[in-house]
């Protein structure tokens, strides 16, 4: 981990998004209290919980954690798994039973309460983990890539399920993932991380439309990266700040025909690859400068391999980001 | 990033206590041993006299030479017999080769001191049966065999070291792909040449390892030398230590000085053995199996089987036969064919009539059970601290837990005596010192076992409990231990069973009120009461066998029931 400075607002879903090894799981472990920071502080509601000198242990933080492996205990039934946290808090038996039944109902596992985890599917185990984490009504819910072990369809379904649970309970969530689609669906704000540092923290739309660095632009959605030369390319906004800059434009924003209204940059190149995808045609064009542009064109586009073409880059779509 | 500090976690007392007990079990006795070796017996001042007096006298240097001769001979035989045996069982088409393994296992689990006693019945001069059969067949004055000699000791110890080399070498050979040998064959090499120049050299690390282990074992053994060499008045280092100890008052300081070199040699050899195994040059197990074909023995098949059965016959069939027969004879000197000599008298005597033997059996079971429980509890707590990295310097903790592995039983006993035969912790004369000694001797096994199974438990399972509010101890008890149940039971057995048969430390630490089966056997053998020796020996093996069977039944049921 390098150093990060992050604030999570009450009731929001903050996604920590980044590739493997970027430090997002470590951040979660720090938040949960399994690791102590070398420097800096972690505060919850203004109260410090972690500092290099002292750390409130996980069992006293009132933060639930959903693990990538679900960590559902194989020697306890679904009911016993979910009841565990309440038993630790020494609640009366009837209240425990009531709350467990209610939460199992919410996650739609009410009929499986007496089963053991090895009798459940991955998705069902996932919901056991959710129920177990939520029934204790924690202040904060931490999720560590909870959906990465599920198949694609189930993943999509669970994304919405998790969002629904959040909206129903209003709980603050920190959600770690490497899947940008997931982050876009679930999060109120996305914190993009790379090499232990934060690249950008903003709502999903802003992170997609107005990335501030090359990494964010290429991590969220696909993007083309071109050298920044004001003489060659006119851009939407001049760069601020020092450092190297590059120009990013998304493949579907590059056009092969000059549009009527927008102001455009015009470049020339040769088609080196063309693939029919059904939804679109995927082309790669090599420019005179040697750079390559990836273009997603409408399926009706008729071009041939090796053909010389003009490409049009609307000024509004040309974003300058730092490297 | 440091893990959350130990002192900030609830229940830290338990962990400190476990580490403390570990210290008392391992480091304190060893420290006392080292200290005693430098102490003057009367004044307690530090001196080198003990070392000088022991190693400058010829009478004390001879046992060192004998130990060395014994160890070299045993290791050589073990390798020369074990390697070909491993080869024919693992790589050829010898008939009935599947039979050999259980026989080797039977030799493996037989305590060598029991085998030594059985061979007394077989090869004692004049009264040993083999001698008597020889005399009956060929006449003459004396039978050719005398087990009460250095050669006899070498023979017996080697018989029970063969399983080690066999297991190590066959393990390597099993995994070796035939392609390596095929490469030689396609270049025109004969079977013999291939085996000699390709197969065996590749098994060299295992062979060397087997040599070293057998060497070490022979150096440290007390039982067979005690039974076979003390009557012959030939000493090895371990029996000499016993002699120092059994004087009145026990010469602890001299014994400690005599024992230190033994300890150092053991440590060095084990270090060397690790280095050998660590060499990558000999790696043939690449995970990509490859075909393992058998070498055809052709006309040698049946002779090979005959030869292969000889070690088993000598280490298992003959000895157990002798033990059983002697235990069923009223007077063993008369032989099994004397009328009315076959009887269950001695069994009745041992179990019901004789208070000493009955108590010894009870004590063995109690102390071993106590030791197993102590070892498993300490080992599990320490292993947990190490595997979950709860404290800094966990490798030191792990090292301490494994340290008893390099300490010969006798040396450990001397250390325990030196440390705990006086205040502040006076354990000598009680069952406590035996329980502690057993637990310490077999702590490494319990620790390895516990570490292994703890590593198999996903730490997320425990972390989940902690995020829900359970502290470390609560998590350990409600999540970890239930999941470890079967593994812990196996660990318990891994200490209980060897403790039942432990001889070298017991002999040094027992008193008339705390006798166990092995010390009783020792006393009876000393007195020449061989019927009692064989009876107790058979009973010991029977009890062990029954417990193992019952335990596996129980574990089997646990495994199918557990979730």
Q: What descriptive keywords fit this protein?
A:
heterodimer; A: 323 residues; alpha/beta; Rossmann fold; six-stranded mixed β-sheet; four-stranded antiparallel β-sheet; 8 helices; 15 strands; 26% helix; B: 563 residues; mainly alpha; MetI-like fold; 2 domains; two-stranded antiparallel ribbon; 2 strands; globular
Task: Describe the protein in words.
The complex is a heterodimer of chains A (323) and B (563). In chain A, the strands form four sheets. In chain A, strands 4-5-6-1-7-8 form a six-stranded mixed β-sheet, sandwiched between helices. Chain A has a four-stranded antiparallel β-sheet with strand order 13-12-11-14, with no helix packed on it. The longest helix of chain A has 18 residues. Chain A has two domains: 197 residues, Rossmann fold; 101 residues, OB fold (Dihydrolipoamide Acetyltransferase, E2P) (Beta Barrel), CATH 2.40.50.140. Helix content of chain A is 26%, strand content 26%. By secondary structure, chain B is mainly alpha-helical. In chain B, helix 1 crosses helix 17 and helix 3 packs antiparallel against helix 11. Chain B has two domains: 245 residues, MetI-like (MetI-like fold), CATH 1.10.3720; 275 residues, MetI-like fold, CATH 1.10.3720.10. In chain B, strands 1-2 form a two-stranded antiparallel ribbon. In chain B, 73% of the residues lie in helices and 1% in strands. Chains A and B meet through helix 1, strand 4, helix 2 and helix 4 of A and helix 22 and helix 23 of B.
